[in-house]
């Protein structure tokens, strides 16, 4: 077993960046509108019902300002739209446009191809084990270390 001694969160972040960079390059190569990693992350957590900026910030773990910037870039690119929220006059609901849905389906297909390439590189068993570990319920994040006095 090869180990670098680096911590798991750092390795997971590096793996996510590998997929984001590969997806971004693949989308651009296939003639799609270029998207940044924050835009990819936002697009990935946006469901069919849509979401507010606050909900997207919570889902992605970034600030509302970062989400606002990503949303505006994707609106300008014609991939997202903002509309009235059905239960709040103060909030806007963010949804994919028809073009955004098409690009989302294309990105999903590309991610499947990238996962296949990864399996060719590190082995199908390794990818299956990684998927199994990441899909397992981890429970609530624990507090570790000495208890405060």
UniProtKB/TrEMBL annotation:
Domain HTH marR-type: 1-139
Naturally occurring in which organism (per UniProt): Actinopolyspora saharensis
PROSITE patterns xref list: HTH_MARR_2
GO BP term (any one): response to stress
Molecular-function GO terms, alphabetical: DNA binding; DNA-binding transcription factor activity
Name listed for the protein in its UniProt record: DNA-binding transcriptional regulator, MarR family
InterPro entries tied to this protein: ArsR-like_HTH, HTH_MarR-typ, MarR/SlyA-like, WH-like_DNA-bd_sf, WH_DNA-bd_sf
Keyword annotations: DNA-binding
């Amino acid at each position: 077993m090869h180990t670098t001694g680096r911590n798991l969160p750092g390795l997971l972040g590096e793996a996510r960046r590998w997929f984001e960079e590969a997806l971004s390059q693949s989308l651009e190569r296939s003639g799609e509108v270029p998207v940044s990693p924050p835009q990819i992350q936002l697009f990935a957590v946006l469901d069919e019902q849509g979401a507010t900026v606050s909900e997207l910030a919570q889902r992605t773990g970034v600030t509302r300002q970062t989400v606002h910037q990503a949303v505006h870039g994707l609106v300008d690119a014609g991939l997202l739209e903002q509309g009235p929220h059905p239960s709040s006059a103060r909030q806007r609901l963010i949804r994919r446009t028809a073009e955004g849905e098409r690009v989302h389906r294309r990105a999903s297909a590309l991610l499947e191809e990238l996962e296949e390439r990864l399996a060719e590189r590190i082995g199908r068993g390794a990818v299956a084990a990684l998927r199994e570990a990441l899909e397992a319920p981890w429970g609530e994040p624990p507090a570790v270390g000495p208890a405060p006095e």
